[in-house]
Amino acid sequence: MVANQETKEEKSGKSSKKINPEGLKRGKQLLRYIYPYRWPFIGSLLLLTISSSVFLVFPWASGELIAIANNRSEYGLNFQGIGILLLCLLIFQGVTSYVRVLLITWVSEKSIADIRKDLYAKLLCQPIYFFEQRRVGELASRATADVSLLQDAISLTLAELIRQIIILIGGLTFIFLIAPGLTLIMLSTFPLVIVIAIIFGRYIRKVSKKRQDELAQTNVILDETLMAISVVKSFTNEFFEHMRYGRSIDRVVDVSMNFAKLRGMFFAFIIAVLFGAIFFILWLGATMIDDSPTGTFHTEDFIQFITFTAFLGGSLAGLSNFYEQLVRAIGASERVLEILDEPSELELNSKQENIKIDGNIEFQSIDFNYPSRPEVKVLNGISFKVESGKRVALVGTSGAGKSTVMQLLLRYYESDGGNILIDHKKIEDFNITALRRKMAIVPQDVIMFGGSIRENIAYGDHNASEAEIIEAAKKANAWNFISEFPEGLETIVGERGVKLSGGQRQRIAIARAILKNPAILLLDEATSALDAESERLVQEALNNLMEGRTSLIIAHRLATIREADNILVLDAGKIAESGRHDQLMENEKGLYRQLAMLQFDSEGI
User: Fold this and answer.
1) Among the four residues 308, 329, 493, 533, which has the most C-beta atoms within 10 Å?
2) What pLDDT digit, counting tens, does each position of 85-106 carry?
3) What does pTM read for this prediction?
4) Tally: H helices and E strands in the chain
């Protein structure tokens, strides 16, 4: 029941915490979303470069103030002049920063909105087996958390990374001009710090990933528990789930403490070594001060050196953080692109065909194995015909392949062998959207949206009028209970229709199918979970719905299919028997008779 929510690419190492050429190449594919907004983006980067360069004037100004106090200003400035200069620079810095933030925010919001729309459209256009191989939580994470990482990368991380690089390069240039010897000494300490930081970083990343794994585990438990809350309560397993979640949280705490120890050791090292090196350089610089007229390193030079060094230290600290965020964003872009690069079963923007279907169906030697279970043969060379307007029932034990027949007809999957014909035309030759528009399915477990009854019925035809919706509800035997609600059609059904009974949900699903006006109707155990009164009402609604339509009916309750024009008895992926109810009951050794006698005896029929 508990499963790790980490994606396959993370398990295979594709999301490793480093930037590689392949990751950059794939990440660059997302630049096509920025391209329509390239000029504001370029403008924001230009303003960022200017404001970052202006920022470097302030360390220089700190030393110039000391020079002015000692009458050694090389630029002939006084306190008033440098004050006006700094005020102008502050105003300029504020204006450029404000405009830059507006530009980059507009670019990031528009480009990320395009990514979200394309990602959602791509998910909608994926075949059913795509969702069977992935967890809903994983896909939701791709559409939310990963896209949010990309937005942060565009609007914040990239800008700050560029800013810190400009400050680092500019600052190093300035201090090298001020004191080249001292700068070289300072730079000589960097390799040791960087090597040790890399070693620490590897361990920290491993522990960080383990922490994310454990945290994902807790999210899986939370998601599973809330999705199956009725099962938890019916089996009185609240305490068990509480303990299970608690143990998972405790593991997160343990890993987090190990993570904190490593980070603490790393920061202690940085403070001890990096700041020790900086203090040594400052001490060395202080011994070099010579304020005599012939001196080459004055107090103001030392102040500028100190200030620039502080700026450089901040940039170095920020670079590692922004680099890590950029790596995460590149990893997120890879995961988003994996979905965007998936082949779709249909195109949303393609011209929609309006086809006419009479409803003749023919299966010719169909073989099928589910992609997730290729070793299990589900259908083994089945063949049958359904004439337009006829009712054909599919019966058999669980796993015989009844639902698979409907799924193949809806083109949720492609068969492994044989042909499916509709009106004597191969099913693959139809536009998949146009074909599905001519079919409607009423399942046993009705899926309803959390809005109103009107919205759920109108899902069959968004252009339907009020009168058409009411007429569909009446034909589905649903209008009586709908009209009794104070809000009528505007009654909110709740998530998955929890505010309605099973029979009410079933009749709304039938009204939805009636409104769609399909040529082919698929009924998958539509009455098996209902009480006698609800079943009677639903069966009447189904009879109205099946009138004049080709109907395929899956039924475990054989009493509901006595009037079917033909009954196909499936056993282990093959058609064991076929015929009308009376004909099949005459075969004393037949599977249908055995099933019927067992069921009718148990129901007292």
Assistant:
1) 308
2) 888 888 988 899 899 889 998 9
3) 0.73
4) 24, 10
Q: Find all residues with CB under 8 Å of 294, minimum gap 6, and list them.
A: none
Confidence category of residue 40, pLDDT binned at 50, 70, 90? very high
State the helix-helix crossing angle for 532-546 and 502-516, rounded to 10 degrees: 0
Closest CA to 568 of 400, 412, 419: 400
What is the token pair recorded at 377? 């043969």
Give the tens place of pLDDT for each residue, 421-461: 999 999 988 888 888 888 888 887 787 887 888 988 888 88
Instruction: Name the 3-class secondary structure at 570.
Output: strand
| Mean pLDDT (the chain, rounded) | 80
Mind giving me the DSSP string for 515-530? HH--SEEEEESTTTTS
CA atoms within 13 A on the CB side of 180: 2
**Separation in Å, CA 406 to CA 39, 379, 516:** 52, 12, 18
| Range list of H helices, 179-237 | 180-188, 190-227, 229-234
CA angle, 55 as apex, 54 and 56 as ends, to 5°? 90
State the pairing for strand pair 391-396/566-571: parallel
Q: Which two tokens stand for residue 169?
A: 């390069």
Which tokens is 573 given? 């992926």
Residues 6 or more apart in contact with residue 390 via CB below 8 angstroms: 550, 551, 565, 566
Instruction: Please name the amino acid found at residue 363.
Output: F
Label residue 457 exposed, middle or buried (CB < 10 Å: 0-12, 13-18, 19+): buried
Amino acid in position 43: G
Query: Residue 78, class by beta-carbon neighbours within 10 Å (0-12 exposed, 13-18 middle, 19+ buried)?
Result: exposed
Alpha carbon distances (Å) from 324 to 24, 162, 251, 330, 378: 14, 14, 25, 10, 48
- Main-chain phi, psi angles of 453, to 5 degrees: -60, -40
* Residue 403, beta-bridge partner list: none
What Å distances lie between residue 31 and 27, 41, 115, CA to CA? 8, 11, 11
Q: Are 168 and 312 in contact (CB under 8 A)?
A: yes
The closest of 313, 316, 311 to 58, measured between CA atoms, is 311
Name the percent of the chain lying above pLDDT 70: 87
Q: Are residues 508 and 500 in contact, defined by beta-carbon separation less than 8 angstroms?
A: yes
576-589 as b/e: b if 16+ CB within 10 A = ebebebeebbeeee
Domains of the chain: 20-340 (1.20.1560.10), 389-399+437-603 (3.40.50.300)
**Confidence at residue 421, expressed as pLDDT on a 0 to 100 scale:** 92
Q: What's the distance, CA 430 to chain centroid?
A: 30
